[in-house]
Amino acid sequence: MATALQSRPQVTEAEWEARQQLASCYRVFDMLGWSEMIYNHITLKIPGEDGAFLINPFGLHFSEVKASNLVKIDIDGNKLDDSPYPVNRAGFVQHALFHRHLPDAHCIMHSHTTAGMAVSSLEGGLQPVNFYACNFIGQIAYHDFEGVTVRDEEGERLLANLGNKRMMLLRNHGILVMGRTLPEAFIKHWSLQRACEIQVATLSMGRPLAISEDVVAVHQRDLHMAQVPGGPGAADFAAMVRLVDRTDKSWRD
């Protein structure tokens, strides 16, 4: 850690830690098969710097993201470092909107996984037909597809449709989740992705067994009993980073 900071004197310890955590997350997404060419985004606020957040360099695959090549920008899209890489406007517009208006949206993840896009393209969206789906019934917002998200004026409708929720299925588009920490956002994304995968598999076999509202309520009430120390997703995310480290630690650079 000290060596990295000495070679980058303009980077605070808090920013470097945020860079390493976010870079590791991109590698975890890639390991789990959630890369989409050079597209999609995970963003993370920099602690102690109002309006500053990190985003992946446009043109690099998730497997190429490192702590040092993440791009630091403000909520107006201005680069705050000397990165040679551009930022994809389709990613910036959506993420900056939520970072600007939602103080608790510390980390935002957007993906185009096959299962996530399939369920977001299904009338009725996520259905109460499996364990993981029950985690989120009543907690998912929906936003109709308006084309690629490069227009600022779509932001008002995105915020209105999100309301007080922090997970959204962008119809015909994919998954969007937010968290107070990166591990929290990660475990939300992982669980929602699993819910979508299982729903796709279940619907392919015929008519699913629906879970009643009463059982969903009990399930959501009791979920906290299964949480592990460290906060939501902390142990899960740490385990995934250890798996990444077994094959490639270059994200740390």
TrEMBL record:
Gene3D superfamilies: Class II aldolase/adducin N-terminal domain. SMART domains: Aldolase_II. It holds the Pfam family Aldolase_II. Residues 20-200 form the Class II aldolase/adducin N-terminal domain. Transmembrane segments: none annotated. InterPro entries: Aldolase-II_Adducin_sf (IPR051017), Aldolase_II/adducin_N (IPR001303), Aldolase_II/adducin_N_sf (IPR036409). Belongs to the aldolase class II family. This is Class II aldolase/adducin family protein. It comes from Sphingomonas rustica.
